[in-house]
Amino acid sequence: MSEIAEIPPERAEQIRQNIAAVRGRMTAACERAGRETGSVRLLLATKTVDPAAIRVAIEAGEKLVAENRVQEVRPKYEALEDLDYERHFIGHLQSNKAKQVPGLFGAVDSVDRASIVDALDKAATRHETTLDVLVQVNVAGEAQKSGCDPAEAAALLERIAATETLTPRGLMTIAPIDAEGDALRAVFRALRELRDDLQRRFPDLGLRELSMGMSNDYREAIAEGATQVRIGRAIFGER
After folding, report:
1. Residue 73 falls within a domain, yes or no?
2. Is pLDDT at 194 greater than 90 in this prediction?
3. How many domains does the chain have?
4. Is residue 189 part of a domain?
C-alpha cells in the first residue's frame, strides 16, 4: 500500500459531518417522495480529492467511489488498496483510455457512443473480466455535454447487451448547471420516463439504475426517481 499524508483532524471530522448531513437530506427527500430510504445509493465523486480524504469517507461507511479521469486513479487506488469499496468511472471516456479501465474500475457510468462500447468490450475481453455500465444520455441536448441523444439510447443498449463482457444497468444524465425548479425536475423526469420506456422494450435487461443528481440538485433528482446520486463538493468541499 502506498503511503499517504494524513489530513488534519478537523478536516476529517468535517467530511464525516458532511456525509451525515447529505445522508440526512437524502432520507428526507426519499420520505417526501414516498420512497424507501435505502432505495438511493450515494456515490462519492472524488475527482481531485486526495486519498486521505477519500479514506475518511470510506472508513465512515461509504462504499461507492467514482472518478472522472483514468490517469489520476492508479496512485489513489494503490493508497486505498486495503479498503473494500466499489470503483466507478463517471467521466468522459476516450477510446484510447478504455484499455485501462478493466482492473481499475468495476463499472462505467458514462457510456455514450458505440465506439466506447466496442473499446470497453475489447479491453474487458482481453482482461478476462466484466463491467457494469450505464448509458449516459444528454437529456437537455447541451452541445458542451457528453451523452447520447435520447433517441439513440435503445440502439446503444442493444449493442451493449450483445457483448459478453458488458452488463447494462440503466441510465445516467447530468442536468444543466443553471436549471432550477420545474425545468430541473423536467430533465430528471425525462430520464426516468426514457428508462421506463426502455424497460418495457427490453424487459430482460433490468435497467434499474437512474444515476442523476449532484451536490446542487440531488434532492430534486431523488424526487424524480434517482437510484444513485453523485456527490463531491457537498462532502469534500470546494476543489
Report:
1. yes
2. yes
3. 1
4. yes
